[in-house]
Amino acid sequence: MIIRRFKPEDADKVSALIINTLREVNIKDYSKEYIENLILRMQPDDILQRAEGTHFYVVCDEERMIGCGAIGPYWDKMDESCFFNIFVLPEFQGEGIGRMIMETLEKDELFLRAKRIEVPASITATPFYLKLGYTYKNGIHTPDEEGLLRLEKHK
Questions:
Q1: Total count of domains within the chain
Q2: How far apart are CA 39 and CA 47, in angstroms?
Q3: Is 4 left (phi over 0), alpha (psi -120 to 50) or beta?
Q4: Are 56 and 3 in contact, with CB atoms under 8 Å apart?
Q5: Is 3 helix (H, G, I), strand (E, B) or coil?
Q6: Phi, psi of 88, rounded to the nearest 5 degrees
Q7: Cα separation of 155 and 153, whole Å?
Q8: CATH number at residue 15
Q9: Residue 62 pLDDT grade (very low, low, confident, very high; cuts 50, 70, 90)
Q10: pLDDT (tens digit per residue) in 5-31
Q11: In what order do the strands lie in the sheet with 149-154?
């Protein structure tokens, strides 16, 4: 298993990985309509666009794409960053892949320069981030209008 930077030719596989995970895992916490609307914004062209403005990583088990995650600047601020698109295929969850992605992101220059990191977390992923030391932004424990919980870590 290796983790490496995203390449444009990864877009189809990353899109499929995210869509698969949303439909199999996140559907437990969200309506089918919510998931299908989110999938419309996770197509290969959307992934390519996201990768242009972030440091995007993929995890591969030989030729199979099994995880991904990105870090980018938070609203162009030099001292704040944000995580995006952290997903692991359902059959690989609980095997340390998510932790490996997070460790890689936390070694990235965009993490190291930041004083604050924000995570727009799904209901599904929130316990994972809490275990890693992220806390609720402004103490708010309920999803926002996008259906996400805002978590953060100050350094």
A1: 1
A2: 11
A3: beta
A4: no
A5: strand
A6: -135, 135
A7: 7
A8: 3.40.630.30
A9: confident
A10: 999 999 999 999 999 999 999 999 999
A11: 2-5, 55-61, 64-74, 77-88, 116-121, 149-154, 135-136
- How does pLDDT run across 64-109, given as a tens digit for each residue? 999 999 999 998 888 999 999 999 999 999 999 999 999 999 999 9
Contacts with 34 (C-beta within 8 Å, 6 or more apart), sequence order: 147
Token couple for 117:
């990191």
Helix (H, G, I), strand (E, B) or coil at 30: coil
Phi-psi region of 68 (alpha: psi -120 to 50; beta: other; left: phi over 0): beta
Q: Any residues with CB less than 8 A from the CB of 92 and at least 6 apart, and which?
A: 61, 66, 67
pLDDT band at residue 116 using 50, 70 and 90 as cut-offs: very high
H/E run at residue 34? helix 32-39
